[in-house]
């Protein structure tokens, strides 16, 4: 296969080859040629098969070598985290915690399922196709019970993120309903929300724990992370979710996370839209805070972050408070 500079990159990123893997491939090709020359010089009597075995061994060693740009991950480890299916992720164990009531997403899903259970498996949607006002009120009332209630919430955030008069004005609840549909737990038909029969059976047998991993998989592999915001130009962050989560769980610093992401994936800065108000690193920073920290980790109850940093001239630490749910869910083993 001959790849041109403007051909789609074979890695599946959707970028042109010249903007993605071309430089890395050229460097790797040069390193492999150096290896061949060195092996031939030291062992000129090797057969072609023997030479291939030696070169393959060296290539494997290179791919399994810690890379400082990846915070010590090897290219093999990083490749798994970026491209492996959810159930084939390595160097991390993903568990379903015993207590899920501290997670807004799982708490809202419980309300949805309980409402259906009380009505023979379905309930009426609003004329716009949203969850009924009764559920919205119940979900809004949960806010004081979550860890994020410790903050003096800015009115616009509390209304649009974790409370609201209807689903359209309640982002975390709307997000939960969308994930439940993507995960195949609920569906809407003939003006009603139905819980699938298999999901009802799972809920009766195993409770809300049956849906923790399916919902998490939907959030990290299928959901459009830009769905709830109005940024015209999208930077795809979902691919890097596990790397970002690992780093944030390690040090809890937003600033350090931004630096690590920019170092590991410098093309993200090249993908940033030209903006008179924000530099590429500032754009990347805002998207990571909005899409990854606020509308993924915080919706799930994995971390909290002080919203005051957005509405005051005073210095407010850009760090997260890691919640027990995060460490109970993800156990990393990245050592070689």
List how many beta strands DSSP finds: 7
Main sheet record: 3 strands, antiparallel
Sheet-strand content, in percent, reads: 5-15%
Supply the helix-strand structural class. Answer: mainly alpha
Radius of gyration: 24 Å
Question: Helix amount, in percent?
Answer: 40-55%
Task: Report strand order across the widest sheet.
Answer: 2-4-3
Q: Which blocks of ≥5 consecutive residues have pLDDT under 50?
A: none
> Which term fits the overall shape?
globular
Order of SSEs, N→C? HHHEHEHHHEEHHHHHHEEHE
Give the terminus-to-terminus CA distance.
34 Å
Helical region count? 14
Describe the 3D structure:
The chain is mostly helical and 336 residues long. The chain has a 3-stranded antiparallel sheet with strand order 2-4-3. The protein has a two-stranded antiparallel ribbon with strand order 1-7. A two-stranded antiparallel sheet has the order 5-6. The longest helix has 21 residues. It is globular. The chain starts with 21 loop residues before the first helix and ends with a strand.
């Amino acid at each position: 296969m001959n790849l041109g500079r403007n051909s789609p990159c074979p890695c599946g990123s959707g970028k042109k080859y010249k903007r993605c893997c071309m430089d890395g491939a050229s460097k790797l090709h040069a390193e492999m040629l150096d290896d061949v020359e060195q092996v031939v010089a030291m062992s000129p009597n090797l057969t072609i098969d023997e030479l291939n075995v030696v070169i393959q061994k060296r290539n494997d060693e290179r791919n399994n070598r810690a890379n400082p740009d990846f915070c010590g991950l090897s290219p093999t480890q990083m490749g798994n985290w970026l491209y492996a299916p959810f159930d084939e992720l390595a160097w991390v164990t993903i568990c379903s915690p015993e207590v899920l009531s501290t997670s807004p997403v799982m708490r809202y899903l419980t309300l949805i399922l309980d409402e259906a259970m009380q009505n023979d498996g379905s309930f009426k949607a609003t004329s716009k196709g949203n969850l009924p006002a009764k559920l919205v009120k119940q979900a809004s009332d949960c806010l004081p019970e979550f860890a994020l209630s410790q903050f003096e919430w800015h009115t616009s955030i509390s209304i649009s993120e974790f409370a609201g008069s209807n689903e359209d004005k309640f982002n975390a609840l709307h997000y939960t309903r969308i994930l439940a549909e993507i995960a195949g737990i609920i569906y809407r038909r003939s003006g009603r929300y139905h819980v699938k029969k298999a999901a009802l059976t799972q809920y009766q047998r195993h409770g809300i724990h049956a849906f923790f991993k399916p919902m998490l998989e939907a959030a990290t592999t299928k959901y459009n992370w830009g769905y709830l915001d109005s940024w015209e130009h999208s930077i795809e962050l979902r691919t890097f979710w596990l790397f970002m989560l690992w780093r944030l769980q390690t040090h809890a610093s937003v600033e350090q996370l931004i630096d690590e992401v920019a170092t590991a994936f410098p093309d993200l800065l090249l993908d940033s839209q030209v903006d008179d108000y924000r530099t590429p690193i500032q754009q990347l920073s805002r998207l990571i805070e909005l899409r990854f920290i606020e509308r993924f980790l915080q919706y799930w109850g994995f971390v909290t972050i002080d919203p005051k940093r957005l509405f005051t001239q005073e210095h407010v630490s850009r760090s997260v408070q890691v919640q027990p749910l995060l460490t109970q869910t993800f156990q990393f083993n990245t050592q070689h």
